[in-house]
């Protein structure tokens, strides 16, 4: 199995994170990337960095704009430059106002744009955010090229993650939706694609991007959003709209979900993928479902990921794993190893 690694997989992440009203150390620490890569190496993956040609923004922009709004992409590209020119500018961009139904006049000041395009306090923008986000996109674009050439499975180590990034908004540590960009790229080869999100949190951005399309099935298994991030999406009654009706499935699970209950939900999801007659599978891969994860509420063991990998492999589809969350650093390498070896062992 090839593992395509973002060139910025191990750089320093954002400094602060707003967690239930408290600013704390941001959980996307550099050690995450190192431990995920270590797990891939232990699973005997071939580590590949994107070719230099695919690191150029001009080569990536067309793929990004296929799923993200141009005005939003332009904002991400220039946000830090404009913000840092302000007097007494902070070292990271946080929104200090959120537009709502009473505030409708668009304003292009740096502070106003931060509120317009950043949905929460988990996705601060810093000097290197745009560069790092492009690195993640370069990894998934490189990974899709291998799948389109006939590889059966590829792993993309993306950092920052992407599944919370909406068409025109950053949130939840995500800026560009790597899984969605990869899916759109794969559509040049495969006519029907399923996205299976196994991160702890609902893949709201991915759902939004494909919500009205019938060629992409989106499924997310996650913590019940009644009292869990992202709070406003991820409920069972969200089934798609228009052409995409019945092409979206959410499987919210309660706190404390163990391996047996999780695998039962996974089997339900895989049956829907089979019924959809998908030709390829994109797995938004999070390990924050692990029992000790500081941002999770499930009770999976490291060995649970081996079973998850085995079940996903049983579909027999060309598969792209796209890295999302997972914040208990001490167990990350083993969790990654278990998932990959489980998939490879079938």
The largest sheet, given as strand count, sense and whether it forms a barrel, is: 8 strands, parallel
Strand content: 5-15%
Helix segment count?
Answer: 10
Helix content: 25-40%
The CATH architecture would be 3-Layer(aba) Sandwich
Strand order of the largest sheet: 4-1-5-10-9-6-7-8
Count of strand segments: 10
Instruction: Describe the global form.
Output: globular
Number of domains: 1
Spans of at least 5 consecutive residues whose pLDDT stays below 50 are none
Structural class: alpha/beta
Q: Give the SSE string.
A: EEEHEHHHHEHEHEEHEHEH
- Report the C-alpha radius of gyration, rounded: 19 Å
Mean pLDDT: 95
Distance between the termini: 13 Å
Report the CATH topology name: Arginase, Chain A
Q: Report the top-level CATH class.
A: Alpha Beta
Assigned CATH superfamily: Histone deacetylase domain
């Amino acid at each position: 199995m090839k593992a395509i690694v973002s060139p910025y997989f191990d750089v320093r992440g954002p400094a602060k994170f707003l967690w239930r009203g408290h600013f704390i150390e941001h959980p996307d620490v550099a050690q995450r990337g190192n431990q995920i890569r270590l797990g891939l190496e232990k699973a005997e993956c071939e580590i590949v960095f994107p070719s230099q040609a695919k690191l150029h923004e001009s080569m990536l922009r067309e793929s990004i704009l296929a799923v993200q709004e141009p005005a939003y992409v332009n904002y991400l590209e220039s946000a830090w430059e404009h913000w840092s020119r302000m007097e007494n500018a902070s070292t990271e961009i946080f929104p200090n106002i959120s537009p709502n139904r009473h505030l409708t006049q668009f304003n292009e000041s740096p502070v106003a744009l931060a509120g317009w395009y950043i949905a929460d306090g988990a996705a601060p923008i810093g000097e290197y955010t745009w560069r790092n986000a492009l690195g993640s996109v370069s990894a998934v674009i490189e990974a899709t090229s291998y799948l389109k050439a006939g590889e059966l499975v590829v792993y993309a180590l993306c950092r920052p993650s992407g599944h919370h990034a909406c068409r025109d908004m950053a949130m939840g540590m995500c800026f560009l939706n790597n899984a969605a960009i990869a899916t759109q790229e794969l559509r040049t080869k495969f006519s029907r694609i399923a996205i299976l999100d196994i991160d702890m949190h609902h893949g709201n951005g991915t759902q939004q991007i494909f919500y009205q399309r019938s060629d992409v099935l989106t499924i997310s298994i996650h913590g019940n959003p009644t009292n869990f991030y992202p709070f406003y999406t991820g409920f069972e009654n969200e089934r798609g709209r228009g052409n995409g009706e019945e092409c979206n499935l959410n499987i919210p699970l309660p706190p404390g979900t163990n391996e047996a209950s999780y695998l039962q939900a996974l089997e339900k999801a895989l049956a829907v993928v089979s019924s959809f007659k998908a030709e390829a599978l994109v797995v938004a891969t999070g390990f924050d479902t692990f029992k000790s994860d500081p941002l999770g509420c499930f009770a999976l063991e490291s060995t649970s990921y081996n079973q998850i990998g085995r079940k996903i492999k049983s579909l027999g589809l060309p598969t792209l794993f796209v890295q999302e969350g997972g914040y208990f650093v001490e167990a990350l390498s083993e969790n990654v190893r278990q998932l990959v070896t489980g998939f490879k062992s079938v």
